[in-house]
User: Fold this.
Amino acid sequence: MENGRHGDVLRVEGLQVRYRTPAGEAQAVRGVSFTIGRGARFGLVGESGCGKSTTANAILRLIKPPGYIAGGRVLVDGVDVLGLRDEPLRKLRWSKLALVMQGAMNSLNPVMRVGEQIADAITSHGEARPSAGELERRITRLLGAVGLPARAYRMFPHELSGGMKQRACIAMAMALEPALIVADEPTSALDVVVQRVVAQTLREVGERLGASLLLIGHDMGLQAQLVHRLGVMYAGELVEVGTVEAMFARPKHPYTQLLISSVPSLKERTLPKPIPGLPPSLVNPPAGCVFHPRCPHAMDICRAVAPAPREVGPGQVAACHLYGDDPRIGATGAAPARDAAGQTA
Ligand SMILES: Nc1ncnc2c1ncn2[C@@H]1O[C@H](COP(=O)(O)OP(=O)(O)OP(=O)(O)O)[C@@H](O)[C@H]1O
Ligand code: SF4
Ligand SMILES: [Mg+2]
Assistant:
């Protein structure tokens, strides 16, 4: 097993999550694997319904019926989360993990002052019991770190704006100095300017604590600004992973290419371009490559054989037959994609 302090903070291996539905089992997450190193920031993107939140919830073991984890492993600091009993799981969640969700601000207790709520989280879940004075100093420091004035300590949630409330939630998530922050669309309930400020706060506070970040969201601009590596999900699968620079400059998977080109450009004044077609059924996903019904490069092999992930550049991995060496690819006569430098990928 990994040595917790030096290995990856998060290691997800072959994760599978399903939901039982009247139409059959929806395979929401289908064999997802990735790692996040200490202090690293990883973004997860993909169309609505592709399994991002399900992946995040499975990491925290928060999948509720009709959902269940059907396979795989999740290691946090080397500890197998999926195998833990309730009490050690509760401890691990509070000591190592923090979750900031979309609309987390609505989960603040409306009749409790902000400072008291953070104090509550520290005293009921922290290892040590700080004195009242020490607690107040610590919380005031936390509020300052997320850009809130010290007086926010004695304020009720309704006295704060949406952005301030979301920052209070970040302060609460940071209170126990987690090793990994899982942020699921942490800013999407806020207006655009406040979104950037809150996201920047998340980054700065995470950096100060040396915490790793798993950031889920649709906003590619925000991801580019915040994370080191980006994972692209499609229909429950992680189809490509790479550094932000590589993913924006040299996306290899056809779905990533469409996703990147769908981002509106401010410079060229373009509008968002929707990707043609619809995501497939997760109850009966297509055979072969799950993207083949929408892929502009689909070949015969794509309809029959699921592509295995393979290295397509330094630290960049994609699951696509265009980069495979299967002899059946040549037989179809399809031309392999070329990257921006004109090299055959
Ligand atoms: N409780 C549930 N019962 C049945 N199916 C579910 C349930 N929750 C999620 N799903 C299905 O699982 C798939 C993945 O959902 P998930 O919420 O993880 O997507 P997402 O990528 O987070 O989407 P979004 O960007 O809209 O938040 C979806 O197709 C969804 O319909
Ligand atoms: S494997 Fe085939 S269908 Fe799938 S993304 Fe690659 S080229 Fe397209
Ligand atoms: Mg979601």
In short: The chain has two domains: 10-227, 233-332. The pocket of iron/sulfur cluster (ligand 2) is lined by residues 253-254, 289, 291-292, 295, 297-299, 302, 307, 320-322 (CB under 6 Å). Residues 95 and 125 are 8 Å apart (CA to CA). Confidence is low (pLDDT under 50) at residues 330-345.
